[in-house]
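Slide 14.
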Amino acid sequence: MSILQVKNITKRYTEHTALSDVSLSIPKGSVYGLLGPNGAGKTTLIRVITRITMPDQGSILFDGRPITDNDIYNIGYLPEERGLYKKMKVGEQAIFFARLKGLSRKEAIARLKEWFIRFGIQDWWERKVEDLSKGMAQKLQFITTVLHRPKLLIFDEPFSGFDPINANLLKQEILRLRDEGATVIFSTHNMSSVEEICDHITLINRSRNILSGSVSELRHRFGDDIYALTFAGQSQSVKELLESMGEVLSLSEGEAGAPSELRFRLNARHTMREAISAINERVEIRSLSEVIPSMNDIFIRAVEGTL
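Slide 15: predicted structure.
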């Protein structure tokens, strides 16, 4: 079941169309990647979902019904451009944002203490916001985004500016929140993060949705029937064999007794069963696997129109 359905959304600004007939469906309890090059329309779509701006056409359904202003209390949104009140103390700043989300001061403090410990910033409660490093300020903003336990979380470039250790901490927390029942949308250019934590993605380019689906299904759908063979033995012999059965794309000779690797594609006249049998007569097969494209490869090919 979907927590959010975007139906035929169009948004124009004077002579510029930011979104053109965009539709997508966000499954409950998933991590959903919203991908696309700069200027593709991702942030505009997020602003429409969060009711910061209204669409010219189309509709948004939240939990199966038209979204309303009151539904915003069930959404946590962390924009890419973030801001804090620098002269406030860290703890009071966090309480302030929590109260805006509907929490009592007592409940806000209890939840914040837990999160501050989890993120290792408990010693900064009485310090001023202006003393925080960029990474620590981002941790604080992440905490205030998720503190009221919304059904839907939206992060715009959440890993921007984080070092690898803290980026990994954030990924773990996003997955934990998903496992506890939240649905997460995040907009990113970080394709490795997409493969690590996303269940589904939508790719927006030139204001349109050009690709949607589960990450694993898309990676397999856009494979090119290329296989990687690792073997021990005479490389020239197996190369000639596979050239007679299809196309050899690359050959990397093993050095000092290490196995060699060859990448190939069979033509329509030959099956993989035939190929394995013939290869096995010439060399010792160490491994054979299909080469699945990365999300980065799919992203580039989709944007360039070569899928």
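Speaker note: The chain has ten helices and 14 strands.
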